[in-house]
Amino acid sequence: MNKPLAGALLSLLLVGAAGAPAMAAAPVTPPAPAAPAPAVTYAGTVALSNCSGSVVRAPASQPNDPALVLSNGHCLETGFPAAGEVVKDRPSTRSFSLLNASGSKVATLRASKISYATMTDTDLSLYQLTTTYAQIQSQYGIAALTLNDVRPAQGSAVKVVSGYWKRTYTCAVDGFAYRLKEGAWTWKDSVRYTSSCNTIGGTSGSPVIDTTSGKVVAVNNTGNESGGRCTDNNPCEVDESGRVTVRRGINYAQQTYTVVPCIGPGNAIDLNRPGCVLPRP
Question: Looking at domain 45-267, does it have CATH number 3.40.50.200?
């Protein structure tokens, strides 16, 4: 109500109202400064033997939950899953090099199992580790990256952070491919980068981090290398009407907000949870 009251007094003064007492202007509280965008570093990223990845948590994950590592389905140590294949709760002893903010290796983490992996509809893998988030935090001072639970917006600024190459790419979400087809595999609603994210082999599995929130919105997975049409290493976009578009030199990622509803208590992957749309075995 301060603004209407000040306006009424000003009107009285302007028309020369007699006896109106002089009043000091009410102090104006300046708006709080906007919170700075979180710094995007290598902290929490990992290097695999052939790919990149990151230690991630769902918004509801707890400190004593076994930690998860996110990468691509095509980065599995057992080779590419076939079209239609889903891997779930398969034992694994794979190791990961954990990086700090500057990109230096600080630890070797080890998996207990492949919690989930597929190359159908999306291209992702989630490994469960033998260590918890709390243990990683207390021993190495590194927090997990958080998976965003909402779809990224077109035009949003992102960074692709490769633990394998210790290289960061900066670009924006150019748009989305209704279907992205590469050889035998088809992925849904893929993120298409602007051209400055010219990712290369070994960046597969890198987290795609929204620079405003600092959260993971996708996992980097492929790009059209030589202009081929829907072949290995040359994905093509297919729209709702079946029209094919080839974008030579453009790279892509798979959204990860769809993973969040599938992560239950204890970081167990439960494909029957409400809202979980990941492919089932």
Answer: no
Which tokens in the block code for residue 272?
Answer: 């029957």
Amino acid (1-letter code) at residue 20? A
Sign of CA dihedral 82, 83, 89, 92: positive
- Name the 3-class secondary structure at 274: coil
Which segments of the chain does DSSP mark as H helices, in order? 2-14, 133-140
**Which H helix or E strand runs over 24?**
none
CA 107, 73, 68, 268 torsion: positive or negative?
negative
Q: What is the pTM of this model?
A: 0.87
- Interstrand relation of 145-146 and 52-57 (parallel, antiparallel or unpaired): parallel
Q: How do the domains of the chain map onto residue ranges? A: 45-267
Residues facing 90 on adjacent strands: 114
In this predicted model, what pLDDT tens digit does every residue of 140-162 receive, in sequence order?
999 999 999 999 999 999 999 99
Contact 252, 192 (CB under 8 A): yes
